[in-house]
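Collaboration report, partner site 2.

Our partner group contributed sequences for two proteins of shared interest, and the home lab folded both. The records are reproduced in the order in which they were received, starting with the first partner submission.
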Amino acid sequence: MTHDSTQSSYALSIPDALWRYALTQYADPAVASACLDLQDRAGADVCELLWLGWLDHLGLAPAASVTVALAPIRDHQARQTYPLRARRRALKPHARPGSALADWRERLKRAELAAEHETLVRLQALTQRGDGMRPWHPADGDLYARLYRHLAPLNASLVGSLTSLAKHLTRRASAGR
């Protein structure tokens, strides 16, 4: 791992550590905005983006085998989270406050959040097992470079969102150390 390997091992063992990290990071409006822009315009998975930030904080990086390790998690997202999100978003223009549709939309939102929680639990377990992980090396570049590679190919119009995300995740992680 890194010079913080004891801290990293401890962080990996805390139940819901990645979930808590994701909630804290996503509470920053700049992080949320960048994540949603990358999700909506590049098809990025917000859980994976936040997970990559967490890996950076732990001194870990995805290995070449990460795509294989992520396959079951991505299948969960495709089957559970994405359909809930699509239904919730489709109701938005029709769900007037206080209406039955607004209540239904709120229930879908809670179900979507529960599905994302499960995704983060699975990503933390994958990290604990070391599947598709390895210690970070200087050749990996900074968090921006790793996020860029993860999303490649990336439309040039999204570089600003990616830059903002990397900057805010790195700054917030450094402040917490």
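Second partner submission, folded after the first:
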Amino acid sequence: MYSTVEVVQVFLSRLAAQDAPGIARLCAPTVEWEAPDPNGARWMLGPRTRREVESQFLILFATFDLEQLSVRQVIVDGGDAAVVGWARWRVRATEEPVDVRFSAVLSVHLGEIEQYWQMPDTLAVAVATGAARAEG
């Protein structure tokens, strides 16, 4: 069974490898989920199954190529971990680069992610994908 720190390390390595099935295998059968859809236009809330988690990351990786992932800080308190970082993605459809600051909170119980909250810069993502327009 993984510790909270180990779950975060494995999660980040699977994210960097764009391994959606591997991320889903880290999750409990049901995960309390709060994260935006891949284009950043709306939030998806509520419980997700492992299959739905895998699908969410498959859509993300079909929309974007991850070019760089930088973690600034990981804070762990028992079963909870907060990750603060930055990622450079490239929109597959347009080749548009997008830099996204993010924080994510993972709650781990018995070595599985039971709660996942992701808070990225949704405006940067929505503008890069064309879901929103930035006024200059």
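Feedback sent to the partner group on the second submission included the following. Helices lie at 4-16, 20-25, 50-63, 122-129. The first helix runs from residue 4 to 16.
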